[in-house]
Amino acid sequence: FFEAPHTAYRCAEQSASDVSLYDYVIAGFHVRLRFAGAGLPPQLCPALAHLSVAPSASPDLTVCLWDTCSTGVSMPRPPWPEEDYLARGEIRGYNTERFRTVYDVWGGAFRMLDQERNLALFWTQDARQLPTYDRGAPLRMILHWWMRCRGLLFVHAGAVGTEKGGILLAGKSGSGKSTTATACLLAGLRYAGDDYCLISTKLAPRVYSLYNSVKLDPAILREKMPDLATWISNPAELDREKALIFLHQPYPAWMAKTFPIRALLLPTTTGREETVLIRASAAASLQALAPSTLMQMPGADGRELQALAKFVKQVPGYHLQLGTKLAEIPRMLEQLLEGNSP
User: Fold this and answer.
1) Where do the H-state alpha helices sit in 49-166?
2) Phi-psi sector, 141: left (phi>0), alpha (psi -120 to 50), beta
3) What is the pLDDT of residues 65-89, one digit of tens each?
4) Contact at 8 Å (CB) between 298 and 90?
5) In whole angstroms, how far apart are CA 28 and each of 24, 135, 190, 240, 247?
6) Average pLDDT for residues 107-114, to the nearest whole number?
7) With helix as H, strand as E and coil as C, how does 300-321 read?
8) Which of 103, 157, 260, 321 is deepest in the core (most CB within 10 A)?
9) How far, in Å, CA of 333 to CA of 168, rounded?
10) Residues with Cβ < 8 Å from 129, sequence gap 6 or more?
């Protein structure tokens, strides 16, 4: 079946007036996005801009992308019946060690990876209709599938720090990861992500940046971080979505590609003024990191859970009880990175 949408992509290249290549280095691997049509690049590339590099003669992974509206080429009709659509868009019988397939009917996007050929496909009907989560964290399923075979974990977490070391921020949506990461960036720390990162647990744990985007509650943005308001990329969606900002645009020098992980923080909002840091058990760290990671990544299984269980034993964990004075948060994290733990 892979050849059917791959052939459709090649037809899209032939019919489109725009064919463009965008190259990135992610966790040391050269990833090429090959676009047919002009619709998808402005939607998917801003979040990856801080990882952009010159073209390579031999990329490690190539992703072919097209949309029907800008190319006139449709996605081939799937051969599987309706009952073969599983949770999270996975297709029964089309996910093996070599191939991974997700067809998100509600989101209107198709993704497929051939691990043996290091070749992936992405299609959507109308690039302008891509949801905010795809624009803020593009190709996360494909990158998760491909990177896991290379010993890297795609985690639902943010990360901030310095080149010498940093902190991973874990917790479910709404826990305060994005606010914490952005407050630290504005205070001068390096930013590696607010919602998704790659981590390696071999030897000393290390985090790798994926996206320079951040999603913030509009009310917090207006009240606490007004300077960022001019960089909101989705102003028409704020009645139903968080504000999406690509931080590489206003703060290119503050973007971090990688650093060692010195601690894992579990943020929660309290409504109190003061920010408090309390040591957390490995079990609490795993509970904050594993469920949201595994639920959001199709194909994740016991291997990821074992790797995460190993990771939370390698780095100290802390409950970060967030106060309303945002300036206190980066100061406390800087003290922790300097070795002044509670």
Assistant:
1) 68-71, 132-136, 140-148
2) alpha
3) 999 999 999 999 999 999 999 988 8
4) yes
5) 9, 23, 19, 36, 22
6) 92
7) CCHHHHHHHHHHHHHCCEEEEE
8) 157
9) 11
10) 108
Q: Which residue has 């780095």 as its token pair?
A: 315
Could you give the C-alpha distances from 306 to 131, 156, 288, 294, 310, in angstroms and in order?
Answer: 32, 16, 15, 11, 6
Using CA atoms, how far residue 37 sits from 16, 42, 66, 338, in Å, is 5, 11, 6, 49
Residue 337, CA atoms < 13 Å, CB-side half-sphere: 22
Give 218-273 pLDDT, tens digit per residue: 988 988 899 999 999 999 999 999 999 999 999 999 999 999 999 999 999 888 88
Mean pLDDT of the region 152-172: 92
- Give kind and range of the element (H or E) at residue 282: helix 282-296
CB 211 within 8 A of CB 257: no
As a whole number of angstroms, the distance between CA 31 and CA 25 comes to: 6
In this prediction, residues 132-149 reach a mean pLDDT of 95
Q: Is 15 exposed, middle or buried (0-12, 13-18, 19+ CB in 10 A)?
A: middle
pLDDT value of position 243: 95
Length of the chain in residues, anyone?
342
Full-model pTM: 0.94
d(CA 127, CA 208): 27
Q: Closest by alpha carbon to 186, among 153, 127, 130, 229?
A: 229
Place of tokens 């074992």: 306
Measured CA to CA in angstroms, residue 307 lies from 152, 165, 192, 200, 224 at distances of 10, 21, 21, 9, 37
Q: Tokens 């691990």 belong to which residue?
A: 115
DSSP letter string, 177-245: HHHHHHHHHHTT-EEEESSEEEEE-SSS-EEEE---EEEE-HHHHHHH-GGGGGGBS-GGGTTTSPEEE
Helix (H, G, I), strand (E, B) or coil at 16: coil
| Cβ atoms of residues 155 and 184 within 8 Å | no
Cβ within 8 Å of residue 3, ≥6 positions away? none
Q: Look at residue 300 and tell me whether its pLDDT is greater than 90.
A: no
